[in-house]
Design brief:
With 316 residues, this protein is of the alpha/beta class. It has 13 helices and eight strands. It is an enzyme of class 2 (transferase).
Length: 316
Amino acid sequence: MLPRLRTCSYVLRHYAKHFYSSHSGAPRINTIHDIYDKYTKGIPLTMCTAYDYITANWVQKSNCDMILVGDSLAMTTLGYDSTTDLSLQEFNYHVKSVCRTSGPALIIADMPFGSFEASIETGISNAIDMMKLSHKVTSLKLEVGLHSRDGYTIKLIKQICSRGIPVVGHIGLTPQKIHSLGGYKVQGNKKIQDAKELLETALMLQEAGCWALVLECVPHKIAKYITSKMSIPTIGIGAGSGTSGQVLVVSDILGMKDGYVPKFVKQYAQSQDHSITALCKFNSEVEERSFPNDEVHAFKIKDEVWKSFIDSEAKS
């Protein structure tokens, strides 16, 4: 049974839409009901952050429960120094790319920095516009600071949820607020008050209407305790094994880039090494003229057409 949420009417409509689409030949997409069904059975949830058609298509083929189109693409894909450098227009381009994939994953989109801070009205307007990017956008995710400092975002989430838009909250390390946090640091591990306020903020977001919660860089004991007090799923990243599910960035999972790898990341492949090796081989074979092979990689012309062409050239 779903907890009492402001989004219930939307959830039911969304569920019905995908129920009928599955009977019309289109792939059945996970709904919030499906996620809750798995959650209530105690089966850990899987979420992967992907930003483009190719990587999102890989995630779809893996049967991951959810895809998060995260604003972390600013740094992992676009080369910016911070998520705050990303514009809403750039971000929406990537959301639409991910939504062109076909598969079961429920798609959640971040609301990037600058899309909701100016005013409640601006936040609501942008939230509606983002939901209209594609019918496959099922939910939005908003980063929220501790409630004593960030009552505004909690108020906004209430307003968005009251309009039938499902929202996932995000607490702990929130990269959009990195300057006020003093850097990329574990949250709730130094002071009792901060740990208590993380729990209070989580409960306030649940009451505001959030149907799920991301916990980032929170001590595993705190994350497990918060999860035990919630009636909605928690998705952890750097929060230990006691959450309802886990999320990692696809480029981290596949080892697609250089540089520092956070403690909470497990790389399941080394795609960058394999890719660079393949590209070096391509370069060498082109220079050695072993690629392309005309018998394998090229197109042929009928002998009589070729002879006529050469004859015509000789006469010109």
